[in-house]
């Protein structure tokens, strides 16, 4: 199975992004836009993983961590706005989020899951731009405040090929916060 760990996007931020995605889908058809139920903040990409070893991933990801909030604002593109391949909404680079990413990577490393070589840049993937296509002035728009996400759990997702967009990322395990909340 092909899998990753991520924080599901929900609440007001998901609703605002869903509204924006509906408009952008009409305005910029050259982009393969995500659907609201699929929105997430990736913590750790695992890649291809043997299904029979999934319990090892779940055991490694079962550790105490405190709930926290992150603000979602702005839009951007990877690798950059002039040559966009992935369009995203920005996620606050907070200390609790960095601590969660670091703790998860440290626990998955002994299983052979490689840490990302690039620095962690929290974001919510919104759409993929086809080679040679352009999203026009999308990334040049104003800075948006999408709201705040209450992070109370993260999940192990499996990417299932051939499924409709809303079912492409399927939750295989949930990991709720278990410690007192981080003060904000």
Short structural summary:
By secondary structure, this protein is an alpha+beta fold. Helices cover 21% and strands 35% of the residues. The longest helix has 17 residues, at 11-27.
Could you please describe the fold and organization of this structure?
It contains 3 helices and 9 strands; from the N terminus they run E-H-E-E-H-E-E-H-E-E-E-E. By secondary structure, it is an alpha+beta fold. It has one domain (2-112, 121-176): Cyclic phosphodiesterase (Cyclic Phosphodiesterase, Chain: A), CATH 3.90.1140.10. The strands form 2 sheets. A 5-stranded antiparallel sheet has the order 2-6-5-4-7, with helices on one face. The protein has a 4-stranded antiparallel sheet with strand order 3-1-8-9, with helices on one face.
CATH class: Alpha Beta
CATH architecture: Alpha-Beta Complex
Order of helices and strands: EHEEHEEHEEEE
Question: Unreliable stretches, pLDDT < 50, 5 or more residues?
Answer: none
The overall pLDDT, averaged over residues, is 90
Biggest beta sheet attributes = 5 strands, antiparallel
